[in-house]
Amino acid sequence: MQPASATLPDDPEALKAIIAAQGAEIARLTASGRAYDALIQSLRIHIARLKKQKFGASSEKIDREVEQFELLLEDVEIAIAAADRSPDPDEQEKDGADRIVLPRRRGKPRVSETTPRERIVLDPGEDCPACGGPLRLVGEDVAEILELVAAKLKVIETARLKKSCRHCETMVQPEAPSRPVPRGMAGPALLAHILVSKFDDHLPLYRQSEIFARQGVDIPRSTLIDWCGQAVAVLRPLATLIRQTVTSSDHLHADDTPIQVLDPRLRQTGKPRGVKEGRIWTYLRDQRPWGGDDPPAVAHWFSPDRKGINPQTHLANFSGILQADAYAGFRELYKPDATGMARVREAACWAHLRRDFHDVWKGNGSTIAREALDRIGALYDIERQIMGRPAQQRLAVRQQESRPRVEKFRVWCDAQLARIPGKGELAKAIRYALNRWNAFTLFLQGGRVAIDNNAAERAIRPVCVGRKNYLFAGSDAGGDNIADAMTLIESAKLSGLNPQDYLADVIARISDHKINRLNELLPWNWRPATPAHKQAA
């Protein structure tokens, strides 16, 4: 066999060309391998999502698995993009081997109409470079580039001139404008940026301090803490009004999640960490699934523990349907009064029930659990068809299609419970449904009742994301601040507002706003201040 070196040319330029071609081929093969890896990971993500949709496996373990897959997929796709040197990925090209290079799939950025635009015109001139004749315009090719304009900090000096009367020596000076917060030099837009960065983008204050330092302003973390607390205190009356408005509804979704809270007193009792577990409670008003008139809004509360007195206090004036899990603290709300009427009616969550059956099916492959999942899945198929329809239409479809399936499901549950061991997880899931059957079937009595409580779980998810970044609240008062800030920010987002623009305007106005007209600043009523109003404020 002839050695490979004997077939190589002696010309250095030819050798360089061979090396370059081999390098390009290696890069192509590497990119192809990464593309196949990305495809495999993408399919895994889709499979996990489909399982979650079909069987309702929304446990934290499954959520973390999907998040890890998505992060891995993102890293691989970044590597593919770095290896792709094609000049125009939106078109198919052929290389020297007549191999078609498929375009990368990527979404084009959607730019709002309010985004500023800058037009740069490249003009070839007035005379033809070939013959010197005059040129006439026949058209233009326009290419768009999305560029970032870095945020800037500026100092606004307000000078109040003092003048004296030449006749009576009276001193005249304009009144000092009210500050957004009682002390400190932060403007309303800066305060809004700090709040949204911490409670919506989940950037701890020490990271924000580093970002401000890169912009040329050294703001100590202690100062940011002071500004953040003062801004929340200024906005607290509005957060309280949102809570009152939400709980005055006759239909709510409710959920809660733990949050770590520092408590130095615990160290005195022998606990080295000095951390206790508080709770953030979420109550959501959302009539969008049936096209209701009341705008969506969410109210958050903090409590230092999970005692039942907390939701009972939050919902002391609530009357209507409460969609929640089987937490024992809600039971007091469901008890009838002396006349036999219940002020609060319970609507159970079919997603929780479906999750119990899924855990059994995943653990031992039970065919009974799988049949339960299929029966519940048929109800969800109907719910997807009536999403967004008026309440009367939803009720009519449920009566015609869902009710027979629910009744058959109960008969099936009774039959299975007589066949299986009474102490197993499968029997526990069936008894969970049968013991609360009235709550599980309440959605069949009205088109406004949802089949599950997933809306509340989605509403409380930002709290779960936030606690992974700031880890714990510094005190019970810090927990109250989290609840207040997130009530305002998340309600603004539900109203389709930019929370930073909304908070900046409200912080600038609320100190001089009449307290009996505070409802004008609620997210669903809010209108930006006119220039005249801003000047007067």
Task: Report on the architecture of this protein.
With 537 residues, the protein is an alpha/beta fold. Helix content is 49%, strand content 9%. The protein contains 18 helices and ten strands. The chain has helices at residues 4-7, 12-55, 60-83, 188-199, 205-214, 221-247, 265-268, 309-314, 331-334, 350-364, 367-386, 391-417, 425-435, 437-440, 454-470, 476-494, 499-509, 531-536, and strands spanning 93-94, 100-101, 163-164, 171-172, 251-262, 275-285, 297-303, 320-323, 344-347, 472-473. The strands form three sheets. Strands 5, 6, 7, 8, 9 and 10 form a six-stranded mixed β-sheet that branches. A two-stranded antiparallel sheet has the order 1-2. It has a two-stranded antiparallel ribbon with strand order 3-4. β8 (320-323), α9 and β9 (344-347) form a beta-alpha-beta unit. It is extended, with a radius of gyration of 31 Å. Residues 89-103 and 532-537 have low confidence and may be disordered.
